[in-house]
Structures are given as structure tokens and as C-alpha cells.
Design a protein that fits this description.
The structure holds 2 protein chains of 2 kinds.
Chain A (H helix, E strand, L loop, with lengths): L4 E3 L2 E4 L5 E6 L6 E7 L6 E7 L2 E4 L8 E4 L6 E5 L8 E8 L8 E2 L3 E5 L1
Parallel strand pairs in A: 2-11
Antiparallel strand pairs in A: 1-3, 3-8, 4-5, 4-9, 5-6, 7-8, 9-10, 9-11
Chain B lengths: L2 E5 L2 E5 L4 E8 L3 E9 L6 E6 L5 E4 L2 E5 L3 E6 L8 E9 L6 E3 L3 E6 L1
Parallel strand pairs in B: 2-11
Antiparallel strand pairs in B: 1-3, 3-8, 4-5, 4-9, 6-7, 7-8, 9-10, 9-11
Classes of the chains: A mainly beta, B mainly beta.
């Protein structure tokens, strides 16, 4: 079974530029998460989708971050404009949504803002 | 508000020196408690799910236990390859599978 796919793996941008990350969850998984992990900290939930609807985006900085999940499958996370403090790993994860509740992570997209 | 606190922040062991990592949690109705292992530059790798107090799960040198307020990850006779960050997370019955993580414990095992 294929895992959660993310791209790009690494990105370096200047502050005030924009960046987009893509995620393809495990096939059939209804729930998709985006987490932000700053070096030395645990993952912080940014947004959670159930199919193509948003379940929780209470910690998403909506003035600069946006996310969408079209057709309830792939998702993109966008940052515009980026700030230095956005330097982090952006982890995508998925969960079946019914029955099993374990979430499975991708390898992450590493963002450095200079 | 759901909360997860892990201790210690870092733990240094000699190879073969058994120890335990702690995860204290507050959650409004626990659906599940998860342990993950994270290696540098990688995404978290799933280890265990615990659902109710008294439950235990084992995998190789790792054993996870759960009470109503905390979970322990016991590491028996660790090897250098067990060096990693261990993350604990909780999921509540409310909030549609919202999963909250602790800050992790960084484990270093020296040969």
C-alpha cells in the first residue's frame, strides 16, 4: 500500500515570497491533516479535512496560509507572503476517517525562509 | 482544552540501560493515544495505539502502557538504533479525529 506522498521535499524562499506544498493521502483515506513542525517541537495541527470539507482550521494563520482539498483526495497548502518564522517542516497525514483512527504521515516538506 | 505533556525532553542512555518515557494528557473523552517514532529528516512513524486504561502493547524492545492520566513507553535494553524522537498524541471522541501531539522526547542511546 502506497503511503502519504508529499512534494516538494525541500524549498528555500525569500521572505514575502509564496510557496505551495502538495499532498496525496493514502488511497481511500477520508481525513487529511496538515501539521507544522518547528525544529525541536512536536507537530502542530494547522488544518484538518474530512473528505473535502474543513473540520478544524482554528490554528491556521488565515491571513497568510490557505489550504484546499479538491474532490476529497489531493490537498495543497499555500503560504503567501512567507515570514521567517514559517521556516518549518510541513507534514501531511491521513486517516481512514471511519473505523481505524491511526493517522499516517508523509516524509514532510522542509521550508526555509531567508 | 486537550493537552499532551511529554517528559523528559531529552534522555541519554547507555546501550542496555532500560528506562521509561512519560506522556501525561488531558482530553475530553479519549478515543485513542498514539506513540510515534521520528528520525531526523523523516515524518513520524506509527508505533502503537492504546484505547483504554490498563491496555499494553509491545513491539521488540518497546512496551507502551496506559492509565487514565498518562502513558509510558518502556524501552528495555535499548540499542543505538533506538535513538530517535518519540512523540505521543491523543485523539478525543469529539472533534472528528482531531489529533494533538506532545513536544516529544529525544532519546540518545550510546554504544
Amino acid at each position: 500500500e502506497a503511503g502519504v506522498a508529499q512534494s516538494p521535499r525541500y524549498k528555500i524562499i525569500e521572505k514575502r515570497q509564496s510557496v505551495a506544498f502538495w499532498c496525496n493521502p493514502i488511497s481511500g483515506h477520508a481525513t487529511l491533516y496538515w501539521y507544522q513542525q518547528i525544529l525541536g517541537q512536536g507537530p502542530k495541527l494547522l488544518i484538518q479535512f474530512q473528505n473535502n470539507g474543513v473540520v478544524d482550521d482554528s490554528q491556521l494563520p488565515k491571513d497568510r496560509f490557505s489550504a484546499e482539498r479538491l474532490k476529497g483526495v489531493d490537498s495543497t497548502l499555500k503560504i503567501q507572503p512567507a515570514k521567517l518564522e514559517d521556516s518549518a517542516v510541513y507534514l501531511c497525514a491521513s486517516n481512514p476517517g471511519t473505523g481505524g483512527n491511526t493517522i499516517y504521515f508523509g516524509e514532510g516538506s522542509w521550508l526555509t525562509v531567508v | 482544552e486537550d493537552q499532551v505533556t511529554q517528559s523528559p525532553e531529552a534522555l541519554r542512555l547507555q546501550e542496555g540501560e532500560s528506562s521509561s518515557l512519560n506522556c501525561s494528557y488531558t482530553v475530553s473523552g479519549l478515543r485513542g493515544l498514539f506513540w510515534y517514532r521520528q528520525d531526523p529528516g523523516k515524518g513520524p512513524e506509527f508505533l502503537f495505539t492504546l484505547y483504554s486504561a490498563g491496555e499494553e502493547k509491545e513491539k521488540e524492545r518497546l512496551k507502551a502502557t496506559l492509565t487514565k492520566k498518562e502513558s509510558f513507553l518502556h524501552i528495555t535494553a535499548p540499542k543505538p538504533e533506538d535513538s530517535a524522537t518519540y512523540l505521543c498524541a491523543v485523539q478525543a471522541h469529539t472533534g472528528g479525529f482531531k489529533t494533538i501531539f506532545g513536544a516529544g522526547t529525544r532519546l540518545f542511546v550510546k554504544a
